[in-house]
Fold this protein.
Amino acid sequence: MQQGNRLSWSDLQSLARRKPAASSSGHAAAEAEAAADGGNGRRLAKALSVPHLTAIGVGSTIGAGIYVLVGTVAREHAGPALTVSFLIAGIAAALSAMCYAELSCRFPSAGSAYHYSYICIGESVAWLIGWALILEYTIGGSTVARGISPNLALFFGGQDKLPFFLAQVHVKWLDTAVDPCAAILVLIVTALLCLGIKESSLVEGVITVANVVVMMFIICAGGWLGFQNGWPGYNVPKGYFPNGASGVFSGSATLFFAYIGFDAVASTAEEVKNPQRDLPLGMGLTLSLCCFLYMMVSVVIVGLVPYYAMDPDTPISSAFAQYGMQWAVYVISTGAVLALIASLIGAILPQPRIVMAMARDGLLPPIFSAVDQRTKVPTLSTILTGICAAFLAFFMDVSQLAGMVSVGTLLAFTMVAISVLIVRYAPPNEMPMEGAGPSSLESLASQTERSESDEEILGGPFGNVQDVPTASEAANTVRRQKAKRCIVLVCIGVIIFVSAVSLSSLPFYMQCTICAFSGLLLVSSTIVLSCTGQDKNSSRKMGGFMCPFVPILPVCCILINVYLLMKLGTHTWIRVSVWLAAGALIYLFYGRSHSSLTSTAYQRVSPA
């Protein structure tokens, strides 16, 4: 019975096992990267620099949504203050981008948020994040692809005049129209990605530059019209803030999703020539350029037409049409199509790399980790994910599932922010022991009944007596334990606070009480964590970008992302829960037993 308890406790511990982090500098980094693929030559090509990363980031971020969101958010929320909403949303997105930038410099390998969670939090959480990201990119790519056909209809004179291979066709036994154009485009993009990362990033760059040119046309031509006509959109009865500060912030919550896409840059970390320098620059340039373009377009459009008179579906083209520039509709529609194609490339690009990373770690069948020796891309994973996205885009109207994309993104952003706190205050101090076999694992399991303090002072994780730690080591152990508790309390405080704010059905006095209690817990835990001090060894190993204002910035990032998660609809959460439950079953029956960490024992490494 006792042995059974030990086994069950060992099984429970396996859910939290963490992948060892590679050293971030020097020869050790090169060796660690070579070992990451199992020594089988499955390395991705290091071919990307800052221009490539910026093209991927901007192309993934600026989708056709900007051509619609301007009207929707201005009419319903922000009014003429739409520019301020874009700025606030950009700042909120920058918080997550800085967390991504630090972790991508520390751990420059494929997998993005999945990879960071595996190193900092644990295997089971990493699996769920990777599984959610697979869903996000599949549905995101399919949604984008199905939006291209309606935009192409303008150039052919309407939906009825589209060629048969581009038009959506209604089938009697299906509730939705099939879209061959969407499926064809997904397969074309998949073939492009199989050619190589440098080739696909070059095509992405050309399309992105053309899209930026269209947006600059909107800004320049719209600005000329505005100065000629006295900016009538700003002369409205309710002033610049018709719905007050609440309207501006609610608009920012909607516009936040217009900045999602920079995480595609992090997914290519293993293919960057100089990740510690280029990844932060690529993400920074992506967000800066996107925020500038968004703000300038919004300044022009809300100035040309009063916010309450905007067309919610085609706000930009209708604004130009009101001034007799009907021909501009074709230019703007071209920009929308280009934006959709660039977003499609950005949506399909990261997914095979996440699948490859999960297969490398043994959580998926190893066949998905294969890298083509000539093109240096995960060809099989790319083809598989492309076929799945093409199937969805052809048969299903995935617009109903678009909210599920946001869940994967926000969960990833949240875990990345938590990972920054962990790596700064309580980084993993265990490394795999060479030659560890089953006997080592049995010795490791036999020690689980000891308290953590006993393990630190009296014996190692393998049952052999160690030297009594020095005073500095003992103090560092106490500091780490305090930091871990504070991080847990921060997360609990955020969840309770956001839940109380979001549940309007609660009585007002109860809502205020819960908010006060959870807010106090959140603030006090953050203050104690800040006073605890960061891990000096972790900071000393880092040579790249360091996220500023830690722990305040990551905590704010967690708060924003959890709030946005709570604002998603119930139906979205039900659908996502079904997907995550299916993923949990796959992990329990396959991933956990086939994990590359299954036969790995660990030895504790004292800080240098």
